Amino acid sequence: MEDAEVHVIGGGLGGLAAAALVARSGRSVVVHERRGRLGGRSTTDERHGYRFNQGPHALYLGGEAIGVLRDLGIPTPGSTPPTRGTQMVLGGDLHLAPGAMGSLLRTKLIGVRDKAELASLMARLPRLAPHTFADRTVNEWVDDLAGRELVRSLLHALVRLTTYTNSPDQLSADVAIRQVQLGLGSGVRYLDGGWERLVHGLCGVVTGCGGEIRRDDGVNDLPDRAAVIVAVGGPAQTAAVTGHPYRAGLSAEAAVLDLALAHAPDHRFVIGIDEPIYLSDHGSMQAMCPPGRASVSLAYYLSPDDEPDRERLEAFARLAGIASTDVVDERYLHRMTTVSAIATAASGGLAGRPSVEVPDRPGVFAVGDWVGPRGHLADAVLASAGAAARAAVTHLSTRPRVR
């Protein structure tokens, strides 16, 4: 494997997916991971029989990631989120969320005029062409789309929920519209057993096709090999390895509180309107909790100027009906990255993100949630992994085959 044709630096979801695709093409590949654990932000922790992902994770059924996973033969069993009877919080009070026509008519969250505008807007959303809004911010798009203040607040909450981002002054409306369309269209899936099942599946493809996964000291400089795929995280980390001066960009972050519960909560899906917080029952999937138990994840979407506030998350949980006596165990992630560098309106949206080909570095390719013109979150990771793997194999076809 010292003479492997492709060396992948980074054993997270993107690096493993790229390596799996290269290995399946018949090319030799080795993965370097400096940490003792593979998977990066796709790992799943177990505590007293409860399993927690690195923050709330959902697989978009109409996105790029599930297509790559299906192509590799990796199963993705799971369940849809428990959104029936979704509650929204406004002014410290719970209200039925205006979703389908029945709940739209029954909810007391918004008035008659708000309901009429919201119904019209939701009918138009699926027909929008996201790329035509690439140079506009979420704030600009929402302000033009909705005239009523409360409807605008509902839209912002929906954007936060589907993008894991709270930067409406910078985030491209291209990203927001695509994510909202995916969420309202095909929907999402919570994976049985957590996202680490994807890590195990990808490792199995790599080694099953003759590749090697090496837990070593990592690679700080580009190895002198025929092709190198760099999947080490965000722009700054990639720049450190490749030598190309990528701009750092604006990251998206969240504070996360996971609660292991003795029983299912009163409300299993709660969205904040005037607070950028959401709660969802992620423990009802198979193998996520001990029998008869439950767990929830709360995420506080941080704006660029926000400081994490655990007490606000705890208060939100109480508002959703979770008492301190219901909590068996908990885990708090003070500040975690949800997107390494968001696609901004100033940079042209998704089309303005860097290519997988590293400039001035022939045979070197980048993978990440900030790379390539397709997808957001894990969809961007696996879309760029697929593009990098194809580009590496194409590059190798111009060189003598290593035996």
List keywords for this structure.
globular
List the helices and strands and how they pair.
Blueprint: E1 6-9, H1 13-24, E2 29-33, E3 44-47, E4 50-53, E5 59-60, H2 64-71, E6 78-79, E7 87-90, E8 93-96, H3 101-106, H4 112-124, H5 138-145, H6 149-163, H7 173-184, E9 188-191, H8 196-208, E10 212-215, E11 227-230, H9 235-242, E12 252-261, E13 269-272, E14 277-280, E15 294-302, H10 310-319, E16 327-339, E17 364-366, H11 378-396
Parallel strand pairs: 1-2, 1-11, 2-10, 7-13, 11-17
Antiparallel strand pairs: 3-4, 5-9, 6-9, 7-8, 12-15, 12-16, 13-14, 14-15
Helix pairs in contact: 1-8, 1-11, 2-11, 5-6, 6-7
Q: Would you kindly provide a written description of the structure presented here, covering whatever features stand out?
A:
With 403 residues, this protein is an alpha/beta fold. Helix content is 31%, strand content 21%. It has 11 helices and 17 strands. The chain has helices at residues 13-24, 64-71, 101-106, 112-124, 138-145, 149-163, 173-184, 196-208, 235-242, 310-319, 378-396; strands spanning 6-9, 29-33, 44-47, 50-53, 59-60, 78-79, 87-90, 93-96, 188-191, 212-215, 227-230, 252-261, 269-272, 277-280, 294-302, 327-339, 364-366. The strands form 4 sheets. A 7-stranded mixed β-sheet has the order 8-7-13-14-15-12-16, with helices on both faces. A 5-stranded parallel β-sheet has the order 10-2-1-11-17, with helices on both faces. A 3-stranded antiparallel β-sheet has the order 5-9-6. The N and C termini lie close together (11 Å).
